[in-house]
């Protein structure tokens, strides 16, 4: 499969048009969606005003954490129904009997989510740049490394959402499962680690935790100083996390591609 | 040319399809008949590459469902029994999406879409949103989607379900037209009299086994090898019965009531007319004289037991 077939000429680009219409008043929920959009614009404007007004007290890490929080919710919300909703609406089998490859289907479904996460990230760049003024420790390298963690995690989340969506028959069930996995990974796992694992070893077990990684990149001694040492300090460079997130995303995407099944799930993977 | 060879589908202890084989040529309209759970949909899903057979295979113009599923997908149009359509797209966009998937050259797409819309009588709905269409129109749009790439084989699983009588009649005309265009059409349905109207070939399946397959007339002949004549007389039916028993080609005559008789007859049309002439010459006052034809429903009821798996 070439990049052109997978991305540029992917027929599933029709999803953009559908998503656009859903948000700009053509569908039945148009008014509600327009209201949500106006609310988003207002919230964004307020954020920018706050950053501009209090830029001498701001830090880029706050904006990056905000970006991570937003993406943690937006990416699954956008992609949980990628395949599960097709099954639910009985459109899936008609796609599977067409001469489109599994890779085109999965990548086509992911493109929309990836573009959205890039768009949200791009919106926050001005705030990140402005907030440099309030943090003497802020360096371009740190911001870049932290951004690598945020985007890497968001890509991983996109792949995870489609992976779970491909294994579920209902979009709502897919959404619940994705958030359950996130709660386990981002909340339960750190609690479990802090209770059961010695302080010095916690960093290794939280290597994949994006929020932990962000704080460690910004202030390498933050958790280490609390626990009397930071033997794992070299792990939290941001770039290592990026590689692992992208690697995991690639593996999940590949597994999804190879294991697509029909709407009833009563057959083996589609060939 | 479609060739289905010994298709089997086994789910654990359940055998859904047991060695189904048949072949169809361009222009054939094949009615696939069976009760719910008989194995029709499973067979159709195997031919459409949605399900992999446990054993056996099918080929469409040489493309094998196991070895070359993509080649098969390019040649088939599949309409499932239950289906949905994408929201928030217009009718032409929906068809354009599938035309893109089916690799219809961009320059031809508009004319192809116009043609299939015309064929399915949806031209006026070209710019309507899919969700605004009635059930019958959505059914036709789904059929139009099946046609954008000019497939050799159409697999229509219960296409008439949920349609009103007018929409059914229109769908029937459309299927006949597709047969005339040289496509192989497989239609599964419960509405047997309708199938008999437009199918030139039927298959009856029960518990995964094909009980009968062939041209409609041939199957009817199999279950009713002799002609059955219904005769209504003004009076004296008992006496007429006695006379009939001695007449040539009459195998048996049954008295239904004092006016009606049923006669098992093994002659042809000429001998049938001679029988009528003989009755009239014998001063039998005949009110009605006609041949009773078995229909698909009779065949279906005679061959199947109603058992499901």
Number of DSSP E strands of chain B: 14
The helical percent of chain B reads 25-40%
Kindly report the average pLDDT value of chain B: 89
* Percentage beta strand of chain B: 25-35%
CATH superfamily of the largest domain in chain B: P-loop containing nucleotide triphosphate hydrolases
- Just give the CATH class of the largest domain in chain B: Alpha Beta
CATH-defined architecture of the largest domain in chain B: 3-Layer(aba) Sandwich
Counting H and I runs of at least 4 residues, what is the number of helices of chain A? 13
Q: What's the gyration radius of chain A in Å?
A: 20 Å
Descriptive overview:
The complex is a heterodimer of chains A (271) and B (309). Helices cover 71% and strands 0% of the residues of chain A. Chain A is mainly α and 271 residues long. In chain A, α8 packs across α9 (171-196). Residues 225-229 of chain A have low confidence and may be disordered. Chain B has 309 residues and is of the alpha/beta class. Chain B is 36% helix and 28% strand. Chain B has helices at 40-47, 69-73, 91-101, 106-119, 135-147, 165-180, 192-198, 216-223, 237-245, 269-281, 296-303; strands spanning 2-11, 14-24, 29-33, 55-60, 63-64, 76-79, 153-157, 184-188, 201-206, 209-214, 227-233, 250-255, 260-265, 286-292. In chain B, the strands form 3 sheets. In chain B, strands 6-7-8-3-9-10 form a 6-stranded mixed β-sheet, sandwiched between helices. The longest helix of chain B has 16 residues, at 165-180. The two termini of chain B are 31 Å apart. The mean pLDDT of chain B is 89. At the A-B interface, α2 and α6 of A face α2 and α3 of B.
């Amino acid at each position: 499969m070439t990049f052109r077939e997978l991305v540029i000429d992917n027929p599933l680009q029709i999803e953009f048009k559908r998503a656009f219409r859903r948000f700009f008043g053509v569908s039945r929920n148009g008014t509600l969606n327009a209201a949500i959009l106006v609310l988003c614009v207002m919230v964004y404007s307020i954020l920018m005003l706050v950053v501009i007004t209090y830029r001498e007290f701001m830090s880029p890490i706050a904006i990056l954490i905000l970006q991570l929080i937003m993406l943690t919710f937006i990416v699954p919300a956008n992609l949980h129904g990628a395949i599960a909703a097709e099954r639910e609406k009985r459109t899936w089998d008609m796609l599977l009997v067409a001469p489109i490859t599994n890779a085109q289907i999965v990548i086509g479904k992911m493109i929309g989510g990836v573009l959205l996460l890039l768009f949200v990230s791009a919106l926050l760049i001005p705030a990140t740049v402005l907030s440099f003024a309030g943090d003497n420790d802020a360096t371009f390298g740190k911001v870049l490394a932290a951004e690598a963690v945020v985007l890497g995690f968001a890509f991983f989340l996109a792949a995870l959402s489609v992976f779970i969506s491909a294994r579920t028959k209902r979009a709502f069930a897919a959404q619940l499962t994705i958030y359950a996995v996130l709660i386990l990974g981002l909340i339960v796992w750190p609690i479990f680690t802090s209770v059961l694992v010695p302080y010095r070893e916690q960093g290794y077990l939280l290597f994949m935790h994006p929020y932990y990684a962000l704080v460690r990149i910004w202030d390498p001694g933050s958790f280490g100083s609390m626990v009397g040492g930071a033997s794992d300090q070299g792990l939290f460079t941001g770039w290592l996390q990026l590689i692992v997130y992208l690697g995991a995303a690639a593996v999940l995407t590949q597994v999804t591609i190879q294991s697509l099944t029909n709407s009833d799930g009563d057959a083996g993977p589609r060939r | 040319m479609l060739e289905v060879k010994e298709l089997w589908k086994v789910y654990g202890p359940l055998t859904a399809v047991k060695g189904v084989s048949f072949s169809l040529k361009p222009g054939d309209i094949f009615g696939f008949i069976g009760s719910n759970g008989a194995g029709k949909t499973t067979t159709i899903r195997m031919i459409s590459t949605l399900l992999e057979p446990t054993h056996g295979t099918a080929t469409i113009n040489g493309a094998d469902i196991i070895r070359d599923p993509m080649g098969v997908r390019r040649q088939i149009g599949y309409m499932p029994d239950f289906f949905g359509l994408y929201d928030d797209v217009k009718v032409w966009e929906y068809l354009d999406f599938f035309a893109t998937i089916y690799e219809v050259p961009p320059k031809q797409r508009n004319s192809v879409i116009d043609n299939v819309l015309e064929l399915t009588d949806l031209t006026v709905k070209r710019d309507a949103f899919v969700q605004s269409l009635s059930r019958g129109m959505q059914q036709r749009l789904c059929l139009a989607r099946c046609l954008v790439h000019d497939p050799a084989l159409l697999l229509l699983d219960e296409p008439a379900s949920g349609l009103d009588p007018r929409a059914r009649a229109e769908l029937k005309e459309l299927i006949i037209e597709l047969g005339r265009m040289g496509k192989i059409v497989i239609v599964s349905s419960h509405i047997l009299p309708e199938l008999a109207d437009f199918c030139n070939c039927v298959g009856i399946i029960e518990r995964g086994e094909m009980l009968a397959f062939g041209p409609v007339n041939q199957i009817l002949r199999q279950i009713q090898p002799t002609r059955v004549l219904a005769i209504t007389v003004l009076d004296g039916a008992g006496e007429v019965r006695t006379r009939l028993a001695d007449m040539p080609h009459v195998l048996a005559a049954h008295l239904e009531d004092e006016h009606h008789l049923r006669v098992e007859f093994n002659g042809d049309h000429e001998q049938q007319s001679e029988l009528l002439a003989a009755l009239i010459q014998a001063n039998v006052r005949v009110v009605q004289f006609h041949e009773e034809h078995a229909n698909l429903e009779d065949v279906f009821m005679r061959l199947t037991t109603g058992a499901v798996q």
